[in-house]
Amino acid sequence: MRGYNPHPVRSGKSVILNFFLAAIAIPSARIHNVVLFNLINSLSQSIELPRVDDFLQELAAIQQTSSKRLALLGSRHVPITHQQLIEMLSYALVLSGNQLITSGATGTNSAAIRGAMRADPNLLTVILPQSMSRQPRESREQLEQVIHLVENPKNDSLSLPEASALCNQEIISRCQQLLCFAFHESHTLLKTCQDAEEQRKVVTLFYFD
Q1: Going by C-beta distance under 8 Å and a sequence separation of 6 or more, which residues neighbour residue 82?
Q2: What pLDDT sits at residue 43?
Q3: Which of 163, 181, 182, 197 could form a Cys-Cys staple with 129, CB 3.0–4.6 A?
Q4: Backbone angles phi, psi at 161, to 5 degrees
C-alpha cells in the first residue's frame, strides 16, 4: 500500500496553511479557479507535485455550481493546528451548499464535524464504524449533536480496523468526491482512496508526512 500515490500533495504545515487560507479567504467561501490555479502552480515550484493540471482539476471540481456529496476522511493523529485548518475547510465546503460525509473518529474527522456543524448541521452525515457505545468517550458528546448519524452495531464484533474499512466503503458509496488527509503508513485510508478511484470517484489525497 505504500506505493499507492494518486495525485498527492506532499505537504508541510506551510503548504496546507497556504491552501486553506486561500480557500477560506474567497467571498462566499468558494475556491475560484484563478486563485486555485495560482496557488497550485506556486506549490508545484516548492514541492514534488506531479500532474499539476490533474490535481488542479480535482480541487476545482469542489466549487462547481451545483452542490456535491463530499466525503472528508483522515488520520486520528493530527496536530491541533492541522485540525483547525481542516475545520475551516469543512466549514467553507458546507457553507457553499455541499453535503459532507465523514466518520466519527477523533482528529481529522472530528475537525470536519466541527466545521460542518458550524456551517449547516443539516448538510452533515456521520457514519460510525460501530455502535455509539463503542466510540471513544471524548467523541460521544460531539456525536450526540449530529442530526444525521448512522450507527453500525452489526460491526461491534469486528476489530476497529475491520469495522473502519467497511465504514469507509459505505462512505465512498454515498459520495461523489473524496478528500483524504493521511500519512504514508495510513493503510486503511490509503486503501479507501484506492477503492474510491477504482469506483471512478474524484480523490484528492493530502499527506501529512
Answers
A1: 13, 16, 181, 208
A2: 42
A3: 163
A4: -60, -40
CA distance to 19, 98, 195, 198, per residue, from 121 (Å) = 25, 12, 28, 30
DSSP three-state, residue 86:
helix
Q: Is 78 left (phi over 0), alpha (psi -120 to 50) or beta?
A: beta
- Give the chain's length: 209
Q: Would you call 145 exposed, middle or buried from its count of C-beta atoms within 10 A (0-12, 13-18, 19+)?
A: exposed
- The pTM assigned to this predicted structure is 0.74
Amino acid present at 151: E
Query: Cβ neighbours of residue 146 under 8 Å, at least 6 residues apart?
Result: 113, 117, 121, 124, 126
Cα–Cα nearest to 103, from 197, 175, 196, 207 = 175
From the first residue on, what is the mean pLDDT of each consecutive set of 10 residues in the chain (209 residues)? 48 45 43 43 42 53 70 91 87 90 93 95 96 88 94 95 94 94 91 93 86
Residue 81 and residue 56 in contact, taking contact as beta carbons nearer than 8 Å: no
Q: How many CB atoms lie within 10 A of CB 36?
A: 22
In contact, 155 and 163? CB cutoff 8 Å: yes
